Amino acid sequence: MKVSVLERPIKDFPLFFDVTEHNNPVAVYGCRGSGKDEFLQPVAIAIDDEEGTVYVVDTGNSRIKELTSDLQFVKHIENEGLAGRSCTGIAVSSNGLVVVNWRTKTITELSHEGETISQFSHNAFQEPIDVAVDKSYGHILVADNGLSCVFVFDADGKILFQVGRRGSHRGCFNLISSVTVGNGGEIVVADSRIQVFSAKGDFIQQLFGEGKGKGRYGGVVVDGNNRIIATRSEKNRNYVQVLGLDDGSLVSTIDSHESKLKRPSGMAITSDRHVIVVDLGNNCIKKYRYW
């Protein structure tokens, strides 16, 4: 790149840059095990926007690992809602954290110290696998794979409405992987495609990042600029897509070429335009610049 001021060259210019088509992690944390800096089948992650604190569901060790914004270990959080190696979803609430346990079919809100604040279930639950919190409305969203739908509850655990049913048509799901909330309260759900609903559950659109080929989405999040970031797994490829929420256009792809993803699952975004991906197959988390 050549830069000049008043048509005069600047010292040490022109500058030369190495350009690569690959996007590799800027940080990797964790490995297989049960120690302080280790995971056993981690699946979900959430970040406190105000503090930048990172919470990772370490499912195989029945605990939550709390990390600083630069991925330094703080502590482990334990709670009954994490028991049985069956906790598969986490979200940040106004009071602390909300987790879902698919085996006990319970939604638990807990403090950052691990104390239970509240807990509820629903007789229709079959396989609740992910949870999201809409702080604007105080709603708790629970994705259920058994019924292929998303249940929406108020803050007290009272059912408000249900989104979707089993099927391949618009507004239907097969093997939901995750649910999140958009900036306008949109309900965003991922299976083999990404579907967007209004805050009241009305279908808006479906997105396919690269056509309608075989493959499945894992985690999905929406950033403050209405970009959808989602992990996707295909037969011989695991990667991250950045999509436009408004038009579904594919903005970019993170291939993690030098640190291959293996069964990427949950993900969360930071305030400095990075995304942290849970790499279940490699028992670690990976941080990428996505914008």
From TrEMBL:
<dbReference type="InterPro" id="IPR050952">
    <property type="entry name" value="TRIM-NHL_E3_ligases"/>
</dbReference>
<protein>
    <submittedName>
        <fullName>Uncharacterized protein</fullName>
    </submittedName>
</protein>
<dbReference type="InterPro" id="IPR011042">
    <property type="entry name" value="6-blade_b-propeller_TolB-like"/>
</dbReference>
<feature type="repeat" description="NHL">
    <location>
        <begin position="160"/>
        <end position="200"/>
    </location>
</feature>
<feature type="repeat" description="NHL">
    <location>
        <begin position="114"/>
        <end position="156"/>
    </location>
</feature>
<dbReference type="InterPro" id="IPR001258">
    <property type="entry name" value="NHL_repeat"/>
</dbReference>
<feature type="repeat" description="NHL">
    <location>
        <begin position="26"/>
        <end position="70"/>
    </location>
</feature>
<feature type="repeat" description="NHL">
    <location>
        <begin position="248"/>
        <end position="291"/>
    </location>
</feature>
<dbReference type="GO" id="GO:0008270">
    <property type="term" value="F:zinc ion binding"/>
</dbReference>
<dbReference type="GO" id="GO:0061630">
    <property type="term" value="F:ubiquitin protein ligase activity"/>
</dbReference>
<dbReference type="GO" id="GO:0043161">
    <property type="term" value="P:proteasome-mediated ubiquitin-dependent protein catabolic process"/>
</dbReference>
<dbReference type="Pfam" id="PF01436">
    <property type="entry name" value="NHL"/>
</dbReference>
<dbReference type="GO" id="GO:0000209">
    <property type="term" value="P:protein polyubiquitination"/>
</dbReference>
<keyword id="KW-0677">Repeat</keyword>
